[in-house]
């Protein structure tokens, strides 16, 4: 693997973590959402990554394989006076777990930071290699 491919690997990981942070932000923004006019509440989304091996036409790294909706049932809370309550008096809330999403956000930001550090270290090593010839 050439030194320049390190930038491709880290760059793809940074891009994937950025998408992960966007999904987490969307989940957190809708954590307290109730069912909309269509009667369906927001469902948490999860991102799935896929490794891209070296060789072939694509460079090595990671990519987003897909984004899926959580199959966890939505929370139903008994609030008979709420305007969105159904005939039994229950309001359907999103199935987002804010604690889990915060942990996911911290993990994604740490991964992002680590990949930036990998790129900085690779750049530093390349500069030192160039300076050896002087």
Automatic annotation (TrEMBL):
UniProt GO cellular component terms: bacterial-type flagellum basal body, rod
Protein's cellular compartments: Bacterial flagellum basal body
Entry's Gene Ontology BP terms: bacterial-type flagellum-dependent swarming motility
Limits of the Flagellar basal-body/hook protein C-terminal domain: 87-132
Main location: other
Xref: Pfam families: Flg_bb_rod, Flg_bbr_C
Domain Flagellar basal body rod protein N-terminal: 7-36
This protein's UniProt keywords: Bacterial flagellum, Cell projection, Cilium, Flagellum
Assigned protein family: Belongs to the flagella basal body rod proteins family.
Oligomer status and interactors: The basal body constitutes a major portion of the flagellar organelle and consists of four rings (L,P,S, and M) mounted on a central rod. The rod consists of about 26 subunits of FlgG in the distal portion, and FlgB, FlgC and FlgF are thought to build up the proximal portion of the rod with about 6 subunits each.
Protein name (database record): Flagellar basal-body rod protein FlgC
Originating species: Hydrogenophaga crocea
